[in-house]
């Protein structure tokens, strides 16, 4: 590197430094409000297949295809752990199921009754269908671990 190219590099860095210094607090503030949600899933039917979960951020998006804030999946085990990263503080609800046969969908019988295990945050239960968002909702205000029992 010549002396002239070194001077140009120093001048460029000197001009960029104030902008970088101004942006740093914004970058740090953004990451200060990104939390991880860990979901411990208990009672799968077997060790076959995967446990699939979705976290939803509102009643309007609750259980709607393509509307989840994040998706996660992990191999089924006695205790399966799903982790959702970098969620903003707020209200969330989780829906999950054990895809025992790994066909990528939540299976039901001809009457529409589930034949694969499923669960919701707060172990919420619905009547003649899934629970309402309000029944499964919880507040995320920091890194959080919840437990969901499959049924």
Explained architecture:
The chain is an alpha+beta fold and 151 residues long. It has two domains: 1-32, no CATH class; 34-149, Immunoglobulin-like. The chain is built from two helices and eight strands. It has helices spanning 3-32, 133-136; strands at 34-42, 50-56, 70-75, 79-88, 90-99, 118-120, 138-140, 144-149. Strands 2, 3, 5, 6 and 7 form a five-stranded antiparallel β-sheet that branches. It is globular and about 80 Å long. The N and C termini lie far apart (67 Å).
Which key phrases capture this entry?
globular, 5-stranded antiparallel sheet, alpha+beta, 23% helix, 2 domains, 151 residues, 8 strands, 2 helices, single chain, 3-stranded mixed sheet, Immunoglobulin-like
End-to-end CA span:
67 Å
Q: Briefly note the structural class of the backbone.
A: alpha+beta
Strand content: 35-45%
> Helix and strand string, N-terminal first?
HEEEEEEHEE
Mean pLDDT: 86
Count of individual helical segments: 2
Q: Shape from CA axes? A: globular
What CATH first level of the largest domain would be assigned?
Mainly Beta
Tell me which CATH architecture of the largest domain applies here: Sandwich
Radius of gyration: 22 Å
Strand and helix layout:
Layout lengths: L2 H30 L1 E9 L7 E7 L13 E6 L3 E10 L1 E10 L18 E3 L12 H4 L1 E3 L3 E6 L2
Parallel strand pairs: 1-8
Antiparallel strand pairs: 1-4, 2-3, 2-5, 5-6, 5-7
């Amino acid at each position: 590197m010549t002396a002239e190219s070194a001077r140009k590099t120093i001048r460029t860095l000197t001009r960029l430094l104030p902008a970088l210094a101004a942006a740093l607090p914004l970058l740090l503030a953004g990451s200060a409000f990104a939390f991880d949600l860990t979901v411990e899933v208990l009672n799968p039917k077997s060790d076959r297949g995967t446990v699939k979960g979705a976290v939803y951020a509102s009643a309007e998006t609750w259980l709607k295809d393509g509307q989840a804030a994040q998706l996660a999946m992990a191999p089924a085990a006695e205790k399966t752990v799903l982790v959702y990263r970098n969620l903003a503080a707020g209200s969330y609800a989780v829906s999950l199921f054990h895809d025992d046969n790994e066909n990528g969908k939540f299976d039901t019988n001809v009457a529409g009754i589930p034949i694969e295990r499923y669960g919701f945050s707060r172990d919420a239960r619905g009547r003649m269908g899934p629970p309402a968002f309000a029944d499964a909702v919880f507040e995320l205000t920091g890194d959080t671990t919840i437990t969901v029992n499959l049924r």
